[in-house]
Amino acid sequence: FHKLERLKKEDPDVHIQWEEAENREVIDKILQQAIDAGFVIGNIGWEDLYAKEVYQCGMDALVYEGHPFYDRDELSIGDLRHEPLLTLNERFYCYHSFVERCRDFGFIPLIRIKTMKNQLIYRFCREKMGIGIDTAIHKDDIKMDGLRRIRLKDALPWRISIVCRKDHKKEKMIQKL
What we know:
Blueprint (H helix, E strand, L loop, with lengths): L1 H9 L12 H9 L5 E5 L7 E9 L1 E6 L9 E2 L8 E5 L4 H12 L5 E6 L2 H9 L4 E5 L11 E6 L5 E8 L6 H5 L1
Parallel strand pairs: 4-8, 5-6, 5-7
Antiparallel strand pairs: 1-9, 2-9, 3-7, 3-8
């Protein structure tokens, strides 16, 4: 957000706004030329759009104190085979990539709670309702009392890309973004 604010100061004629939306909404706005660029999570798969990865992080398991995994340094997706899990819901790319990765390991995950707010994953994990699944992007933002963040060594990475129409990718402001 601070970088976007700096860009606004550099070029006050350019309208830059922080607005969260689902990937599909961002892509539709770009295709309809309502916006010139946006950020999406994961792969977009559109031939007429240009995407460049700007950030990547891993996925973590959130384990509550007293759970047998609590003292582990890392976990495999396969370790979660019979564990009740807490995740963001189907509206989020990380849900689909996590479920896909579990299938790669030969099982359908036992997702006990799906939510729209990652803070609820932490809350329900503290209440020992299951192991939380979250991106490592939140590692400094959320209080970890009674929880331990453990790297999922073979999870698909969580990627953020800037997206624009292919004919806009060389524009000065797109390059700065």
